[in-house]
Design brief:
The protein has 322 residues and is α+β, with helices and mostly antiparallel strands. It has two domains: 161 residues, 60s Ribosomal Protein L30, Chain: A (2-Layer Sandwich), CATH 3.30.1330; 133 residues, no CATH class. Helices cover 50% and strands 14% of the residues. It is built from twelve helices and eight strands. The strands form two sheets. Strands 3-2-4-5-6-7 form a six-stranded mixed sheet. Strands 1-8 form a two-stranded antiparallel sheet. A hairpin with a 2-residue loop joins β6 and β7. α10 runs antiparallel to α11. The protein is globular.
Length: 322
Amino acid sequence: MSFTVKDIFNIEVAPALGCTEPVAIALGAAACASLAGDDELKSINILVSPNIYKNGIAVSIPGTNGLSGLDLSSALGAFGGDPVLKLEVLAPVDEISTKKAVDFVRNKHVSVDIARDKTGVYIKTIMIAGKNTYESVIEGLHDHIVSLKKNQKQIGDSDLMPRDSENKGGNELLRLEAWLKEKSLADLLDLVDDLDRDDLDFLKKGVDYNLALADYGLKHGSGLGIGKALQRMVRLNLLTNDMVLAARILTSAAADARMSGVKLPAMSSAGSGNHGLTAILPIWAVKDFVNHDKDTVLKAIGLSHMISAYIKSYTGRLSAIC
């Protein structure tokens, strides 16, 4: 099976609000809650792979003033998430839904277990609401719901789960990764010639998303404040600003903002928002030090996304280091 540049972008590049692991957990709960409707929510149990647990356990959740936890992510998805928004599921969350979620967790209505036999992306959510039990399973990709059930009966018609799920999500990713492994760097470089105006506009949208995070990090010194600290050292003439340092400043500032829970989406790459930042922002920073035109810069970013996907085909969707 052959893939196009558009296929790669469609599978590997997408906006994500917050770290993709807790966001995926929120998506699973939001999907269940959308089936439950007005039924009173009584409990949630989530079962996740070890890597999902590792990557999501301590990161700040967007819009919660630094709160974290897989249990809280699930409760937030249930009380305030919109599953139609996929990896931006938490965008509608406000103070009211956050308070409900925090109280729900504090009253020990959410439990988290590790599925030690699972690898990569795997999230199973079991929700009891009213007299009914709802279940969702996300597998393969962070936004790929492979199963939706009510009282153990599969939901056959849902906008949240593609009808041809056999050909989507995890299986499609496996085919893409097998295809990428057969390619050389020269082959990937040749694919850049296939980029059209729609592709370039999409890549520019990713730049805009990730620059907004970097700007926030530089202004507020969010999280560890690495980007802002490096920028201050340049202003004090303690460091000389070259292309490498410029790339470090811009990318770390964006990561500072994102990982501190700022409610701004990142354009992710290969299933990771931080991969998206490092695929896009260093190239955008370096452009000020070399002769270029706008389209060439965007094509370089497109190649960067493809190389990220190629590397991840070997390291796995969720590698040992986030």
